[in-house]
Amino acid sequence: MAAGAEQGIIVAVARETAPGERRVAASPETCKKLTALGARVRVQRGAGMAAGFTDDAYAGAGAQLADDTVATLEGADVVLCVQPPAAATLTTLKTGAVLVGMLAPEADAARSDAIVSRGLVAFPLERLPRTTRAQAMDILSSQAGMAGYKATLIAAQLAPRFFPMLTTAAGTIRPSKVLVIGAGVAGLQAIATARRLGAQVEGFDVRPETREQIESLGGKFLDLGVSAAGEGGYARQLTDEERALQQQRLGEHLKTVDVIVCTAAVPGRPAPKIVTAAMVAGMKPGSVIVDLAAETGGNCELTRAGETIDSANGVTVAGPINLASMGAVHASEMYARNLLNFVSLFVKDGAIAFDWNDELLAKTVWPTSVQPSPHGAFGKGG
After folding, report:
1. CATH number of 10-127+345-378
2. Which residues form the Alanine dehydrogenase/pyridine nucleotide transhydrogenase NAD(H)-binding domain (predicted)?
3. How many Cα neighbours within 13 Å face the side chain of 11?
4. Does residue 271 contact residue 186 with C-beta atoms inside 8 Å?
């Protein structure tokens, strides 16, 4: 082995094991850039195949290939992942190793215990502050964009109608009327996608300031006459009377809608219930609801995560899960760049150095007790 080949920390990327997960936490592009930071990158064989990245592409980018998960993670200083590794896997990591990805440590006691017992420095990027500087590292936004896109395509596939207006020898077909609930990143992408498919699109959000964003994409803002405008750009809690009025008006409006794409979510909390069973019962037979929030309980009362059901009155309700994984190539490219940008905050010249005065590190790390001082540093071997 050439002199100096052992210099630099090891950044490891193992194959994802969660059922249906096709994404990967590093691309050949980001492997090359991690190597430029002085890191040695180790990738498990086949880790990127489902996302369109071959082992040869990783090797060509300077990554070392390992045959299995154990060999990949052995001695790793930094572990990049999409879904959180199993608790049993976490217990095999070296003490003090850095873990970066969508980790949800508090959602699983065994996982959180393993992180604490091994003294791991975990960065659940779903905790990343939503600031301008953090946008290039924002995994929630990058993956939500793909999820909104795929949710709309699923809706178009399930709908027994054309989305666009068509003039045919058999007469004119009117465009489908699509309502997107929630105007975050996923909702805005869903609006844009439905418009590209030729549908007549409306967007609904409790935050009235989203009107401009919805209209900029060619959608119509659905105004139910109840404003939840609060301070600092956040929605305020509606009164019981306001909520009842909003629900009544929404229910009446849904009788005219062909397709609903639900995207409303609250980070760290169950999805808000917006479409009631009574509303579904009032919709036209053949209508379709695709609930992107299915994994956190759904925006529709009838949603079942991972299932597509037909209601008693002929309305189809789909609750697809892990939608971003359906677009694994571009979702992985974006996710890998998010992780690279975050890792670049603390990996420099082949060593790990944490600046705990940096809010992006200090507010993302879990548990927060790992912050030893304003400046903590780990070199090779950590």
Report:
1. 3.40.50.720
2. 156-319
3. 33
4. no
Domain with CATH 3.40.50.720 in the chain: 10-127+345-378, 144-326
Say whether 311 is catalytic: no
Among candidate residues 77, 138, 258, 291, the one labeled active-site is 138
To the query of whether residue 111 is one of the catalytic residues in this protein, the response is no
Q: Which of 44, 83, 141, 332 is catalytic?
A: 141
Distance of alpha carbon 336 from the chain centroid: 13
64 is catalytic: no
Active site residue 371: no
Render pLDDT for 270-296 as a digit per residue (tens, 0 to 9). Answer: 999 999 999 999 999 999 999 999 999
Q: Does 141 qualify as catalytic in the annotation?
A: yes
Indicate the fold that domain 144-326 takes in CATH.
Rossmann fold (3.40.50)
The string of pLDDT tens digits covering residues 5-46 is 456 899 999 999 999 999 999 999 999 999 999 999 999 999
Q: Say which of 68, 117, 130, 236 is annotated catalytic.
A: 130
Rg (CA), the chain: 23
